[in-house]
Amino acid sequence: xxxxxxxxxxxxxxxxxxxxxxxxxxxxxxxxxxxxxxxxxxxxxxxxxxxxxxxxxxxxxxxxxxxxxxxxxxxxxxxxxxxxxxxxxxxxxxxxxxxxxxxxxxxxxxxxxxxxxxxxxxxxxxxxxxxxxxxxxxxxxxxxxxxxxxxxxxxxxxxxxxxxxxxxxxxxxxxxxxxxxxxxxxxxxxxxxxxxxxxxxxxxxxxxxxxxxxxxxxxxxxxxxxxxxxxxxxxxxxxxxxxxxxxxxxxxxxxxxxxxxxxxxxxxxxxxxxxxxxxxxxxxxxxxxxxxxxxxxxxxxxxxxxxxxxxxxxxxxxxxxxxxxx
Length: 326
Ligand SMILES: CC(C)(COP(=O)(O)OP(=O)(O)OC[C@H]1O[C@@H](n2cnc3c(N)ncnc32)[C@H](O)[C@@H]1OP(=O)(O)O)[C@@H](O)C(=O)NCCC(=O)NCCS
Fold this sequence. Notes:
The chain has 326 residues and is α/β, with parallel strands linked by helices. The chain has helices spanning 20-24, 31-38, 52-66, 91-98, 115-128, 152-155, 204-208, 218-239, 257-266, 278-281, 288-298, and strands at 4-12, 16-19, 42-45, 76-80, 106-109, 134-142, 160-169, 175-183, 191-192, 215-216, 249-252, 307-314, 318-325.
């Protein structure tokens, strides 16, 4: 069986930064509350004229240049997002247009914060089966455009940004060793954007009642997140014949520092080998893992042969994890 490896990474964070101190002026909150409850210090905000595809295009150009490739060398594009440019066409279609290419299959994946891991698992299968040779996978969000800035329990949590990886068939030992993914639709109501879809199309009422923004029962989501992040991490490790102690760098989805700390503890991963960027970028849903991966690469934190673990949990609920040798 062919193996799939990441040959390049790229990321883009919008220019505007909103700190916890800025938020203190918008809602009844404090830097101290946000920092101790979540680990977040600041987040990036997309500009009014910046859509999700714009962020992906910028990140994709960086990854292509680093790999010494042109957009025409890609066989497919998968964009994981819950904040697409439009309901249709897909954000991936706008990315294809923005990269100046046409003709290849491109599509979006909707799995909330687990979106990137889902997209990675799909791309891995497509390459392993020989369906495609080289795929660009992105995780990207403009969540702050779907935020209720009057709701202190959610508006402090999210940020915008895009991360991409380019995957191709491996010619050496490097590559994805295992993937694991799951979902439970029975828990969907706990983390939801209620309006804007076919269940509740947009009306004056839905806009007035801010039903096009994130609605979350934070406490309940927290408990499920700890359980499923840990389970996903353990299952992916088990499938690859690894334990938490084999991990050189753990890049988790970053919604809350306390969720990560508990996952690390139960999956027996060295906390010092866990890459944390939640303080700088907040929760970027599908964007978090590929952005953090690119940051770790840029900082020289990953060397050839290192064993990496990704794990995520998100709305749906969805969860997933992947192990790979760099
Ligand atoms: C959202 C979250 C940070 C809230 O933290 P928490 O410790 O559960 O806090 P609670 O919701 O119990 O609220 C505790 C108190 O803080 C208050 N509070 C909520 N947001 C606040 C804020 N931004 N600033 C100050 N106080 C706040 C609440 O009103 C509540 O006050 P009360 O006790 O007087 O009612 C936490 O539940 C969480 O991270 N959940 C999971 C999020 C997640 O993973 N989401 C995405 C999945 S990828």
